[in-house]
Write a structure and sequence with these properties.
This protein is an alpha+beta fold. About 15% of the residues lie in helices and about 15% in strands. The protein has a domain of about 35 residues. It is built from 1 helix and 4 strands, in the order αββββ.
Length: about 60
């Protein structure tokens, strides 16, 4: 297996690592309560998913 002949500089190393950042997750509005939620997941504020109640939220 080949080995590097010369050491890579810090700038080359840091350029390679520059794209290791987190992305903001894409949020969509809930069709029931219009709160932001992650797509394809149950809404945390109203408990709806695909126009039906999946979990009861806040009713105690």
């Amino acid at each position: 297996m080949g080995l590097p002949k010369r050491r890579h500089s810090k700038s080359r190393r840091d350029k390679r690592r520059a794209n290791w950042k987190l992305d903001i997750p894409g949020l969509v509005a809930c069709p029931q309560c219009h709160e932001p939620k992650l797509p394809h997941r149950v809404c945390k504020s109203c408990g709806y998913y695909k126009n039906r109640t999946v979990i009861k939220v806040g009713e105690q």
